[in-house]
Amino acid sequence: MTNPFEDPTATYLVLTNQTHQHSLWPATLPAPAGWAATLPGSSRQECLAFIDAHGRNSGAVSAA
Fold this sequence. Notes:
- There is one protein chain.
- Helices cover about 15% and strands about 30% of the residues.
- The chain is of the alpha+beta class.
- The protein has a domain of about 40 residues: Alpha-Beta Complex (Rubredoxin-like).
- It has a 3-stranded antiparallel β-sheet, covered by helices on one side.
- β1 and β2 form a beta hairpin.
């Protein structure tokens, strides 16, 4: 089975929590409590670019 966080053909979201941490998240999985979609329905590369452009918080949750 393919890791849903590493599938280059999947659709992803960028989730953000109350402390402005960002996380790459597969669009097929429900967002964890306390996280909301900031960038919906994009490619993995688009989401990673968004996270890079908006800063990475050192306490951000790892997607894998």
